[in-house]
Amino acid sequence: MSKAATGGLNMQMPDERGYFGEYGGMVLPPDLVSIMNDITANYMEIKENSDFINELTRLQQTYTGRPSPVYHARRLSEALGGAQIYLKREDLNHTGAHKINHCLGEVLLAKKMGKKKVIAETGAGQHGVALATAAALVGLECDIYMGSIDVEKQAPNVHRMKVLGAKVVPVNQGTHTLKDAVDAAFVAYLQDPVTTMYAIGSVVGPHPFPMMVRDFQSVVGREAREQFLAMTGSLPDTLMACVGGGSNAIGLFSGFLDDPEVEIYGVEPGGRSSATGDHAATITYGKKGTIHGFECYLLQDDAGEPLPVYSIASGLDYPGVGPQHCHLKDIERVKYVKASDREALVAFYDLSRLEGIIPALESAHALAYAIKTAGQRSKDDTILINLSGRGDKDMDYVLAHYPLEEYETQKMLF
């Protein structure tokens, strides 16, 4: 049995201070450190509790619909003429994305701690929908902060959150997007940290959240490893996943980090242009800094303040990135690359037309990099992509801004 099945590189991190190498930690005022220490202590206790594990497993199976399948995209692979493409179908989870994996764990923890409300940010709305869903399930109040630009772009998810009983709070400060939603959610949380819990939506923020969200998302990698071996008799040659904050990616990667024969790629949002800064490719262009209570690669100005970021995919437009991703980049275990808006849009349409699967724009970034590179590989090579979410939420925006007619007049694929 490899180390990946028993912990290894992934579960050895973070250290007791919450650091993955030189990234992570708690860069917070003392009073907030004590609150995070309380969450850490409760999480470390509950994660070993058989009743908690059994309840989470039951909900994963009977509520989320786990295990999500691994699917061989044969028509897409044939069209590319190279590597065989496989998809880990997190889009088939209840609520339509991977976010439900950690939201169930977070609300169960909040309930155990006696909290009355969960607070969170959301970009594409998938975390907001998943948290609103989980909060309704266990009877907690739920407030979701969302940049006003994203409220307009992701109207279907806004409606879903409201139907589920969540209060959606539009954020009009700054760039009106994900970073500003995080800022506003933190401010709201600090007003009442005793009866509320901030349920962070990715592997970012102060310790213990990068560890805790990683642990809840690791079910993706565990399943994928077992499923791929059963399907093919071997491990995939390559893994790919989109990276904004990085939760879906670390979920998949966690099952394979200690298998050096498996190449791993995290695909960042290249946006419209690297020259003008119209992107959110944090690891590609950022440098070490501090944001939202932790240290990570950060897109920042000369004063260390976060820069405005942009992506067609609302769930990826964050100027920081999970600290474990930063460490994996530094030790060269994972290669971080980028895909542009246009490449993601073509991939969005390609998968829809060739496989009957409409992907989230976030997931389409990983798909785009696979499409761009698969033809350079042998037909015996295999690429496993985490299809982290479905594209229902993106349909109106894509059709309004990037018409189907424009796609149909151009060649498919790259």
Q: What does this protein structure show overall?
A:
With 414 residues, this protein is α/β, with parallel strands linked by helices. The protein has two domains: 21-62 and 99-210, Rossmann fold, CATH 3.40.50; 67-96 and 218-408, Rossmann fold. It is 44% helix and 17% strand. The protein contains 17 helices and 14 strands. The protein has helices at residues 8-11, 30-46, 50-64, 74-80, 100-112, 126-138, 148-153, 155-163, 178-190, 209-232, 247-253, 282-285, 323-330, 341-355, 361-374, 395-401, 404-408, and strands spanning 19-20, 23-24, 70-72, 84-89, 117-122, 141-147, 167-171, 196-198, 238-242, 263-271, 287-291, 294-298, 335-340, 382-387. The chain has a six-stranded mixed beta sheet, with helices on both faces. A four-stranded parallel beta sheet has the order 7-6-5-8, with helices on both faces. It has a two-stranded antiparallel sheet with strand order 1-2. Helix 3 crosses helix 5 (100-112), helix 5 runs parallel beside helix 6 and helix 5 packs across helix 10. The longest helix is centred in the middle third of the chain and has 24 residues, at 209-232. The radius of gyration is 20 Å and the shape is globular.
